[in-house]
Every structure is written in C-alpha cells, then in structure tokens.
Amino acid sequence: MRVLAEGKIEQLFGVLDRSTELIQKAKDQSYLDSLIETLGFIQSDDDEDPGLTEADIKKLTNIYAGFNPDEYTAETIRKGIQMAILKAIRIDKIQANYQITPDTIANVIGYIVSGIFHGKKELSLLDPAMGTGNLLTTIYHQLETSIGVTPTVSGIENDDAMFELAADSVELQKIHAELFHEDTIQNVLAPVVDAVVSDLPIGYYPIDANAKGFATHSESGHSYVHHLMIEFGMKHVKPGGFGFFLVPSQLFQTSEAKQLLKWMQGKIYLQGLLNLPKELFQNSAAQKAILILQNSGEGAKQVDPVMLGEFPSFKDQQAFTKFLTEIDDWEQNDLL
C-alpha cells in the first residue's frame, strides 16, 4: 500500500514538475512563479495564456491529459505539492523563511495536538504564519485519521507567493479553509479557535508602529516577530484553548524574553517546551522546540510538572516511541 502511495506522489510530482519547467523556460521566470501558474492551470478550464505560444499550450495539454485530481488522495496531493515546493526552494535558492515545516516535525506536533484533543467532536485551528500551508494541512489530515475529527481551519499569510501556494494546495486537497492574505501583526480579524498551530518566523518585525499595540513589543528598536505572533495567536484562542508553536529552543534565554514572560503572567500557562533533536539543525543556535501554551479559563490550570525535555533522535525508533509514551502519560495524567 505504501509503495502504491509513493508511486502516486511521484506521478503527481512528475506532472507538476514537467509543467513548471515548461512554463519556466517559456517565460524565463523562476521555478516558484511557474509552479504557481501550474497549480492555477490544473484547476482552470481556461487553457489560454498570452505568455505562451500555441505549441507550449499544446505541450501543457498533453502533460495534463492523464491528470485527474480525483484519482489522488488529499494527502498525496499535499505531498506532491510539497516536493515541487522543495524543488523550487533548491532551484531558485529561496530565502530561509520559505522553508517548509518538515513532515517529521509536523507529524510530532500533530501527534501532541491529537492527544490533547482526543475525544473532541469538533475542533477549530488557526495558523497565523501558515506559509505554504504544509503544517496546517498535515495536522488537518492527522486529526482526521487519528481522532476522527475534521477540523475547521484558518490561516494567515502576508507573502504573495506563499499565500497563493497555500490557497491552491488547500483547494486541490478539497479542504474548506478560511485564508487571510494579510500581515498578521496588523491585527487581522481572524476567528477565535480551539488551538493555534504555527511554525513561527524568527527575527525582527520591521514596522515598529504596528508592534506598539502588542504587550510583547520591544521597549527600544524592533520587536521579535515570533513574540508578537505568539501573543496574537493566544489572543485568538478560546479560554482553556491551546497554542502549539515551533520556536527557538533559546526562546526564554534572551534579554527580550522578559516582555514575553511579563505578558504571559497570570493569563497564559506554560505547559510544555520540548526541544527537537539537535541532529535536525545545522548548529545548536538554530535548534527549535515545540512550545505548548494554554489560555486560562474553562478549568485550565498550571500543570505540574511542566513537560520539559528533548526528543531523542528520530532514527532511534525505540527511544522515540518511549518518549511519545511519556508525552501520552503526561497529557492524560497531569495536563487534562
């Protein structure tokens, strides 16, 4: 079954890749822009494009001739698009903020979310920095499979290209999603949800005036965008709801962390901070962790003990499974 699924992913990637390369060469533009056009083409009945010759259009028609999106599962479509985006990042030498959350990490976050919300009949998710939507859609499918819930999902993204990729991806996967093409820090009117999930951008937010309305803004100079995003996210979580954020492991060890901790005091519970394996990152400074926060209200309380630790190597299946079991025990016996 797995070999069959992998074959379908390769098949879909082949269609996307051949079409993208043709458009890239014909228009002398980036692979990423050409991929966006490809995703638009395969969802449209309009086969005209003033930038392509009749011969190019005919070649594209031949590429798409055997393509029927109904023959692919939503998860296959997600993975096929992911492969094409990864090629775009490599070919176009795209900046770090375009990097996709790897499935290994997305699946771990999804596992934790599934454990905490096990037994729920309805669930709403928001990603305030959704990028190409890979993390959000990975967790969406995981929740459907593991706990039998089809969540309602929302996402926010400011970058034009990433937003278009996310919008095309969720449409092809037939996921009903509310997507906002806006700057999150300008206080988007996003829904209040059960859980926020996000692989946060790291660094400074350039527009100080927009950050002034946030309690986590820096007292001098630019503010950390990941601090602002955490605050925004938790403001859009229901009482007793959760935030699951991919953050720098050193989040609470910087001089700017005092603003973040001050804002959290009395209203946001730090329930867990789980470092990801060092082997996934180029150096210790780049290491990331899964931050688990919970809003006060609805019977929520500060858990004791807070779940702190570091995942063993994903290659050590026995140790990794043991650590997941420890998380399960903590969720059921301490957190919930």
UniProtKB/TrEMBL annotation:
UniProt keyword Cytoplasm, yes or no: no
SUPFAM superfamilies found in the cross-reference section: S-adenosyl-L-methionine-dependent methyltransferases
GO BP, one annotated term: methylation
Keywords of the record: Methyltransferase, Transferase
Residues of the DNA methylase adenine-specific domain: 101-298
Heme found in the keyword field: no
InterPro entries per the UniProt record, alphabetical: DNA_methylase_A-5, DNA_Protect_Modify, S-AdoMet-dep_Ade-MeTrfase_prd, SAM-dependent_MTases_sf, YtxK-like_N
Molecular function terms, GO-annotated: DNA binding; N-methyltransferase activity
Residue ranges annotated for the YtxK-like N-terminal helical domain, each copy included: 10-88
Pfam families (alphabetical): N6_Mtase, YtxK_like
Protein name, per record: Adenine-specific DNA methylase
Organism annotation: Lentilactobacillus otakiensis DSM 19908 = JCM 15040
